[in-house]
Amino acid sequence: MKVYSIYILNKAGGLIYQNDVNPGLTKLTANDYLVLAGTLHGVHAIASKLSINIDGMESHQESTANANSALLVSGRSQDANNNKSGLQSIETDLFNLYVFQTLTGIKFIIITSPNPGELKKSYDSANEVFKQLYIVYSDYVMKDPFYSLDMPIKSFLFDTKVKEFVT
Amino acid sequence: MSSYYFSIIGTRDNPLYEVEFSSFKSSSSSSSTPPGISQFTDSVKEILPFVSNSSLDLIEDAQWSTSQFNLGRIDSFYGLLVYAFITQGNIKFILCFESSTTNNGNVTQKYDENSIKQFFIEINDLYVKCLLNPFYAVNDAITSPDFDLKVKLLAKKYL
Amino acid sequence: MSDDIILPSATSMSTLTISDVSRTGFGYNPSVGTASNSITSETSNILLNRKTISLTPTSANSIYDKNVSSKKITEISLSSLSFLFCEIVNWSHKNSKGIQDLETRLNGLGYQIGQRFLELTKLREGFKNSKREIRIIEVLQFIHGSFWKSIFGRAANDLEKSQDVSNEYMIIDNAPLVSRFISIPKDYGNLNCSAFMAGIIEGALDSASFQADVTAHSVPVDGYPSRTVFLIKFHESLMVRESLRFG
């Protein structure tokens, strides 16, 4: 599995980071990336509304509250991915797209090469990428005094580290 | 029993702490005064800070000629002996006492250089602990009652 | 009357005044001098019988009863340190007037740590196998070696002497601990948050009577994007002392 592109969305759906780490996708204009991010955010939200109606799962807010209290009690997160009810992946012949959501509502989105027939395997490797991305994000973005929350990420150390683990 | 004057001098030659006491060990049971109370006469009491401070020049000279912490006996003034110790951070510990150590005419009961050194080393330990207090800055006077108590306990233990 | 003696050492840097009297009989009052903490029959009794007394609210759990000189390495979480330092930079940044001012503030915060850590490191080395540093090159080796090690867990990467100027030395760290996760935005010029560490060095050197100005400069090389050079500029008077003593 090859990672083509990484997107990071803040909790309001704004694009705060976009990086075409490997060639393979056509370049878009800056505005188109913003529109794409907003669309994905919307689709994700709609999907989470639909999935409640389909299998009567606990609502998104409830699951966040549960995950938060579990984190406070045990000191460790059961599953870093808080994306329980929304859009999780899109698989096509040309690319695969995976969505990861943190407890605070930040979304990591990766677009990868398609892996037909190996659904489970590509799902696992996507999770591995998300894990690395989350670590690097917590280290090099959250611990940077010059970063303000929900604003575009400009840290060059973050850039370097992201490139290190995807290539 | 011999009496001691101990002072801590800061980097700007300013006093941070002083105490007067006498040896807790040599007191005979017949003595009416409780042990530890300083026995300096008024005229000596008056000159003790002067004697200590006048040794600062000698200490500064020794500071750059030896790499020891304990400078040993640095000065004497008409029977008053001055012992000094200097920390890496340029804080001076000075101990002054009368050399006439006769207790019941017993001359062998002399000041023990080794226990003075040990006393200084443990004082240094206390000083560093005091310095770790975020509300204490270098060159502030040390007013902590706990520090005072510990110094006196050390005095009782070693001198 | 012995009470009438005027003691010359009775200058006060502290807030205690001449009318402040300790209730317990312990505690030095610089406005009063030795009369403030002289041993009385009562306190003598306490000292002799090792009575446990509560002098201050923290007496029962006082630092004076703890062992600070143990060689055991105490570790703290790098994440907590980084988050704390992140807030320190943010807070200093908020109060500062510019980049230069921010660096000065960070330097000032490190300065006090340096003063304290110098004494603590020497204490931990123990008096048997340690000596007081009295020469420039020795004190620099101490800072570069054991001092660095006790703060950051490892020695600094390099110690160099400037070739052009006789009173300048450089300590080089390939990845300074505090700025490991920090990327300086382009519009902040040559700001380096390791100014905090420069302050630590400056505090330690000043405290040891090696007056110096220490500044931090980013000199990235391949593989070490946050490599920092700490430029130590000793005062001229110090060079005179050194040449007089050891010339």
UniProtKB/TrEMBL annotation, chain A:
InterPro entries per record: Longin-like_dom_sf, TRAPPC
One GO CC term on file: TRAPPI protein complex
GO molecular function terms noted in the UniProt entry: guanyl-nucleotide exchange factor activity
Xref: Pfam families: Sybindin
Taxonomic superkingdom: Eukaryota
Location of this chain's protein in the cell: Endoplasmic reticulum; Golgi apparatus, cis-Golgi network; Golgi apparatus
TM annotation in the entry: none
Primary location recorded for the protein, binned into one broad class: endoplasmic reticulum
Subunit description: Part of the multisubunit transport protein particle (TRAPP) complex.
Family of this protein: Belongs to the TRAPP small subunits family. TRAPPC4 subfamily.
Name of this chain's protein: Trafficking protein particle complex subunit
Automatic annotation (TrEMBL), chain B:
Pfam family, one: Sedlin_N
InterPro entries to which the protein is assigned, alphabetical: Longin-like_dom_sf, Sedlin
GO annotation terms (biological process): endoplasmic reticulum to Golgi vesicle-mediated transport; protein-containing complex assembly
Domain of life according to the entry: Eukaryota
GO CC term, one of those recorded: TRAPPII protein complex
Classification via PANTHER family: TRAFFICKING PROTEIN PARTICLE COMPLEX SUBUNIT 2
Listed name of the protein: Transport protein particle 20 kDa subunit (TRAPP 20 kDa subunit)
Organism name: Scheffersomyces stipitis (strain ATCC 58785 / CBS 6054 / NBRC 10063 / NRRL Y-11545) (Yeast)
From TrEMBL, chain C:
Alphabetically ordered keywords of this record: Endoplasmic reticulum, ER-Golgi transport, Golgi apparatus, Transport
GO MF term list: guanyl-nucleotide exchange factor activity
GO cellular component assignments: endoplasmic reticulum; TRAPPI protein complex; TRAPPII protein complex; TRAPPIII protein complex
Pfam families with a match to the protein in the record: TRAPP (PF04051)
Primary location: endoplasmic reticulum
Intracellular or extracellular location(s): Endoplasmic reticulum; Golgi apparatus, cis-Golgi network
Subunit structure: Part of the multisubunit TRAPP (transport protein particle) complex.
Name this polypeptide is given: Trafficking protein particle complex subunit
